[in-house]
Amino acid sequence: MVSRPSGRASDAMREVKITRNYTCHAEGSVLVEFGNTKVICTASVDASVPRFLRGKNQGWVTAEYGMLPRSTGSRMGREAARGKQSGRTQEIQRLIGRSLRAAVDMQALGEHTIQIDCDVIQADGGTRTASITGACVALVDAIRWMQREKMIKGDPLKQMISSISVGVYKGMPVLDLDYPEGSTAETDMNVVMTDQGGFIEVQGTAEGAPYTQEELLAMLELAKKGCTELFEMQQQALAE
Amino acid sequence: MVSRPSGRASDAMREVKITRNYTCHAEGSVLVEFGNTKVICTASVDASVPRFLRGKNQGWVTAEYGMLPRSTGSRMGREAARGKQSGRTQEIQRLIGRSLRAAVDMQALGEHTIQIDCDVIQADGGTRTASITGACVALVDAIRWMQREKMIKGDPLKQMISSISVGVYKGMPVLDLDYPEGSTAETDMNVVMTDQGGFIEVQGTAEGAPYTQEELLAMLELAKKGCTELFEMQQQALAE
Amino acid sequence: MVSRPSGRASDAMREVKITRNYTCHAEGSVLVEFGNTKVICTASVDASVPRFLRGKNQGWVTAEYGMLPRSTGSRMGREAARGKQSGRTQEIQRLIGRSLRAAVDMQALGEHTIQIDCDVIQADGGTRTASITGACVALVDAIRWMQREKMIKGDPLKQMISSISVGVYKGMPVLDLDYPEGSTAETDMNVVMTDQGGFIEVQGTAEGAPYTQEELLAMLELAKKGCTELFEMQQQALAE
Amino acid sequence: MVSRPSGRASDAMREVKITRNYTCHAEGSVLVEFGNTKVICTASVDASVPRFLRGKNQGWVTAEYGMLPRSTGSRMGREAARGKQSGRTQEIQRLIGRSLRAAVDMQALGEHTIQIDCDVIQADGGTRTASITGACVALVDAIRWMQREKMIKGDPLKQMISSISVGVYKGMPVLDLDYPEGSTAETDMNVVMTDQGGFIEVQGTAEGAPYTQEELLAMLELAKKGCTELFEMQQQALAE
Amino acid sequence: MVSRPSGRASDAMREVKITRNYTCHAEGSVLVEFGNTKVICTASVDASVPRFLRGKNQGWVTAEYGMLPRSTGSRMGREAARGKQSGRTQEIQRLIGRSLRAAVDMQALGEHTIQIDCDVIQADGGTRTASITGACVALVDAIRWMQREKMIKGDPLKQMISSISVGVYKGMPVLDLDYPEGSTAETDMNVVMTDQGGFIEVQGTAEGAPYTQEELLAMLELAKKGCTELFEMQQQALAE
Amino acid sequence: MVSRPSGRASDAMREVKITRNYTCHAEGSVLVEFGNTKVICTASVDASVPRFLRGKNQGWVTAEYGMLPRSTGSRMGREAARGKQSGRTQEIQRLIGRSLRAAVDMQALGEHTIQIDCDVIQADGGTRTASITGACVALVDAIRWMQREKMIKGDPLKQMISSISVGVYKGMPVLDLDYPEGSTAETDMNVVMTDQGGFIEVQGTAEGAPYTQEELLAMLELAKKGCTELFEMQQQALAE
Fold first, then answer.
1. Checking CA distances to B87, which of A139, E20, E25, F34 falls within 20 to 30 Å?
2. F126 is in an annotated binding site
3. pLDDT-derived band at A208, boundaries 50, 70, 90
């Protein structure tokens, strides 16, 4: 039996914490922690929409992602100083935006934009899945704020979204890879789900050997288990 | 029964053509056509490696992707003129590079880099999957050139790689989406496989409604069928 | 008697081919070949004009130029990846735009822009002159399309434009330099003419020794001969 | 008597908290809070020096500064996405670097660089002074880490540095301006001091009316009082 | 007694010359010389305001600063070629703009922008203080031009502004540092004053040892003396 | 008979002044004036060569060009602030560099680079031809400096270079166009010559109607006359 570096069971997630109202200015502000991975997720409401949507009577949700330079083991160059976002950063923020748009009825949102910002202050693997999971809570807080402010009438929230990583580590399908696992796993898969059990994104990459259909199915089972637990934690956080 | 805009059966690919030696300078140069989608794929051999690999006695494969401004129905801005590659471009070229690295034994390649360039001259959906499929043939030609030039001794080619898109169109799983289908499909999935049946990448995105596990499995079956056909066409092209 | 690397007579052009409707989306799309130099020229119609022309009741023609990274003997960096167009690229695209504007009556074009894109897929010298010659045919196709679409009433085409390079190679004035000649010629001159025999541009650069007025006149004679032949080929292509 | 928006006495600072080891990867990591202003300050040790110092047998301290997009009342554009740091950002990070270099004996530091990163997660005025004050504690932690790791022998710490803002608000000199004060004050002055009472930087700007020498002297007295209190808090934090 | 490299007394400025109408196109154009430091200062009038001021019935003054590449002892890279302005450049141009805005009543200026450009053609220390002093004269000329053109009715000039550097050189407070002094001085302070004796900016930086309050006061006295002399020279130049 | 806006005869140049040692730091520094066009040309000696020439035992000459923002009738944006040089700027600086390389024997220059900077402080047409003419004098001064400093033994100066613009204005060939002529001329041609009567560059552009061979020849005659006069003025300046 393979043992994980963290000692966790193959289907065990790290401890997850979701802290609402973490900073004071944003309409939604959440600190999400997946073990040592810590991300500040804010949702900002803007009373306008991007040019391509003007006059279409609908809203938009978009996202940006960043890492503090020393959120990682060795310091990364600051993207603002280098003058461009890396391909990895752009890929992740496109994923976050696409995932959260699945949570929202754009007609019901009206001509407003909710801008998500996910900033990693400490990284230990799974920053994109933590970002999506935390940002969905910030998004709900921003929507509730809009309702209190009478900016919208109905409820644009269609469903909750959560995300978890799974992978194949030394031949064993595992849930919620931390950095030591993720950097050596044969396969790394990020899954985004709805709280009704549908898939929004499945992105599985063989880093070493190709993976089989059996491994793919085993990873999907783990992801479903993980997302189910995350939906509960989101609800607990929102109930506080 | 849903009918596809192209009239194709749900499991039918478009006509695929692979033309080797399409341009004269590159060590490998292929024009790949998936119906109206046409991509020039070149493989260029460079007798050095990126800084992070120097002295490690291994090679590298990397890729860049671009579209001619008027490869599309309405003209896109030229990325060179705007001064940056879009997030989509970066995402695609990262995928192509990752996929083709799975074809190569980096130790056997020695301290050389094979640079893949995929430039779309006409687009009708599926440009990234056509790029991967065509670039793998260009890659083989570049490796054969290196062998003839005595730059390497063994054979760094581990396996062939091909790629196809699948999706759910009006509720029906379909193979090889063209632009009219891809722009309205509920789900779009790109699959990269090895000729031994393993998965290198599975990237499935719900554009509209979430997709179910049954749909996911049906799409994977279609992708396997498509990749199998593509491996045959690659072999025919390489045999000429 | 000096012999040219290609074995051509001093006043002989390479084989020229002009293929219309080379790609399917653009209003005008031409593959132009001057021997091994191959350029895709498209003309795209846009129903607006740049800011500095708004409300002036006239149109505009502008051009962009690029080379595929491996259109050349050794791979060039991709301009989109480096984040800027080189000085050479900008110089060439300014020349192409200026040359083609001489073909068009801007009042008759109305408030439309014709955007020319010249993308070199294989280079062997003379890419800018091939671009101008091919783009003029694409421009005519775009204008004819506008007439069929009833976007304009009259005919904004004033005259045809073609372009050829001439030079002094080992003391001998020669027509239509290919890459081996152009990289060693003492003088390289690009000439753009109208089909009525006027000059639009003469750009002659001494790469080695200065050139004399006699050499200049000899080069101009060759250029006139070359442009005359190119006007015939443009007409043949347009007649098909 | 003028009353401050916060109700504080004219010579009263906001509550200051300095939390060491706030994140886990950096050699020094501090969360500094001046009331609602919260900044993560990390100090990263790098075993090299910038090019202009190579071979000079001395070290370097440099700094970068950033704000999370929603650290402020209305969302600011992300500098990494815009592709450049603002003039304000550059001015602040130059000030932070210059100030902290005054704390360090560069010869004793040897050929190492300490990179300071100050990232504002919540802003309410005084972010640059909080950054300097917090970063000095992170710097000490990084130096202590280098000593434990035997990277250096002696102690490169020459003196502690702290910084506070002062200003003239409705004619009254005040200490430690928060955002509502700073945005309406006639004069805003940032002072950086050593724990031996010397001045490292005095930067006083009249936003409205010019200030007199008397006002300048009154502000300096307040700054001395503030810095003295900050040095005590730094020592308490370092003693924990 | 310490002697200055230039042989000047500690409170002696270099020879200052202010030449109006130095170039012919700008509404105000001044060559200012502080010894060997020579700066062309122009003031350009634009009949619009930046976006953030539109409709507010007030004007704006802003500034840009540059150095010719060989204005200095060894050639500096050209900022336009490198594609960005350095932090130092941005800091200086922000200072110039802020200083000159103190000279102008923005309501009286109406919806106009005065754009200041300070370009150093020869540098020998003190370029920012010479820029501010010279630009204020160009600003007056631009305002007088606007009055003659009937663009404004009243007089938006509130007060004159001048600027001088002071420092501590080998322990001695000195006025108007040239490059040899400035590059070795322990402290460098730039002071911007109004002709009514108020302070607009005081920016004092310890380059080596910290400075004491006594040194600060001595430097301020020198600065007052220097600015007083500069106001006289501005008036003489404006009287010509 | 057409009269020129300036009242000059068709073959009359504006008054030309060449002032050496205009600024004090550069090895060669010239203010060149063609009437109201004023350009500072400096030549800076660097004891290294660009990467592509290392180890080839030869030198290099390169050039950069800029315009002060208010050198023109209406203010141009500062290229350093916009973050890029325009196509026009790049075209001109490539022309200047190419022209001056014709003056120098690169082997005799040894492994040194002479960097030319041409900065327009006042523009009235013909800035590129004035730049080339003035920069050649600065180049000679830099070469003489290198000889005095014993950096080189022989004399790398092969020949003098000068440049003038000619054109067709209202049907009349004219010499040395100023801005009012240049902006309305049908044809604008820049000619670069050697003092032995050879052509380095001929760049003739039809802005309106195409030009005939007769006009081309007439313009060349005028250019020869102009360059001959410029060579005399260069020699007078160098003799002082």
1. A139
2. yes
3. confident
Spell out which residues of chain C touch residue F210, defining contact as CB-CB under 8 Å: 102, 193-194, 196, 198-200
Q: Which residues of C touch F198 (CB under 8 A)?
A: 206, 209-212
Contacts of C78 in chain B (CB under 8 A): 64, 66, 80, 117
Phi, psi of D80 (to 5 degrees): -65, -35
Mean of the per-residue pLDDT values for chain E? 96
| Euclidean distance between CA atoms C113 and E155, whole angstroms | 47
- Per the model's pLDDT, the better-predicted residue between D115 and D209 turns out to be D115
* Nearest alpha carbon to residue C95 among F101, F87, D99: F87
Residue type present at position D2 = V
E213 touches D: beta carbon within 8 Å: yes
- Write the pLDDT tens digit of every residue in A1-15: 679 999 999 999 999
F7 is in an annotated binding site: no
Say yes or no: C48 contacts chain F, CB-CB below 8 A: no
Query: Sign of the C-alpha dihedral, residues E120, E123, E124, E128?
Result: positive
> Nearest residue of A to residue B90 by CA position?
A87
Cβ–Cβ of E89/F68 closer than 8 Å?
no
Task: Please state, in angstroms and rounded to a whole number, the distance separating the CA atoms of residues E197 and E31.
Answer: 25
* Chains in touch with B (≥3 Cβ pairs < 8 A): A, C
Q: D216 and E220 in contact by Cβ < 8 A?
A: yes
d(CA A34, CA A231): 14
| 3-state SS, one letter per residue, for F152-193 | CCCCCECCCEEEEEEEEECCEEEECCCHHHHCCCCEEEEEEE
E126 is in an annotated binding site: yes
Q: Using an 8 Å Cβ cutoff, are B177 and B169 in contact?
A: yes
- Alpha carbon dihedral B189, B195, B200, B202, in 10-degree steps, equals 10
Residue F1 has pLDDT above 70, yes or no: no
Domains of chain C: 16-239 (3.30.230.70)
D208–E contact, CB cutoff 8 A: no
Q: Extract the tokens encoding F107.
A: 């082997």
At B190-239, the pLDDT tens digits run 999 999 999 999 999 998 889 999 999 999 999 999 999 999 999 999 99
Lookup: tokens for A22: 């973490």
Q: How many residues does chain B have?
A: 240
Q: Searching chain F, which residue's CA lies closest to the CA of residue C202?
A: F204
Crossing angle (nearest 10°) for helices A87-101 and B87-101: 110
Cβ distance of F78 and E64 shorter than 8 Å: yes
Residues 78-107 of C with CB under 8 A from B: 78-81, 83-85, 89
β-sheet bridge partners, residue D22: none
* One-letter identity of residue E75: R
Question: Which residue positions in chain B have pLDDT lower than 70?
Answer: 1
pLDDT for the residue F57: 93
* C92 three-state secondary structure: helix
Ordered strands of the A28-34 beta sheet:
A16-20, A28-34, A37-46, A113-122, A60-67
Q: How confident is the model at residue A85 (pLDDT cuts 50, 70, 90)?
A: very high
What tens digit of pLDDT does each residue of A172-182 get?
A: 999 999 999 99
**Contact list, B102 vs chain A (CB under 8 Å):** 206, 210
Tell me how far apart the 2 most distant CA atoms of chain E are, in Å. 59
* Contact residues, chain D, for A115 at CB < 8 Å: 69, 75
The Cα–Cα gap between C220 and B10 comes to: 62
Provide the β-strand partners of residue B45.
B114
What ipTM was predicted for this assembly?
A: 0.95
D52 at E interface, C-beta within 8 A: no
Q: E1 pLDDT exceeds 70?
A: no
State pLDDT tens for residues A111-168. Answer: 999 999 999 999 999 999 999 999 999 999 999 999 999 999 999 999 999 999 999 9
Cα distance between the two ends of chain E: 40
